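Table 4 source record.
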Amino acid sequence: MEEAWIRLGTGWTPAGSTAEAFGWALWQPAHRAAPWPHRELRPGFAHYVCEPLETGGRGLVARAVVTGVLGTVEAASDEDAHRLVAGRLFDDRFSVGLDEWRANPYNRAKALMSWPQRVTAWRIGTERVGPYVLSGLSRFPRTGWQLTEEVVVAS
């Protein structure tokens, strides 16, 4: 059986876009994120996106392929994290301003923690699928990633 990675939510999708998204994580330097696709997270890495369904529960709603990555780096502040991500992943078609970055609930919570922190970010192209409901989608590890051997959709 083939293993597949699943990400809980895409992270940030620009208004009106269904084809592109961006995900990121911030954590304390001593934290070892697991489970996490450390080696796999690079351009061309395909995974599935899990989101809440209108009918309740969660399901796989998209197949995502990574188009750009900011590997794990240290950021001195929330502004520095934004600058690092913007310099690597944002362009004229896709960007998140500093005020929007700071307004994100996840980033607001992380900004209250001590700095420096580590940041990892990735940009993806998405293709809608399903939704497909699998066992184990109701609970995710803190990292927001899980690995499954349940074959999802033919790639």
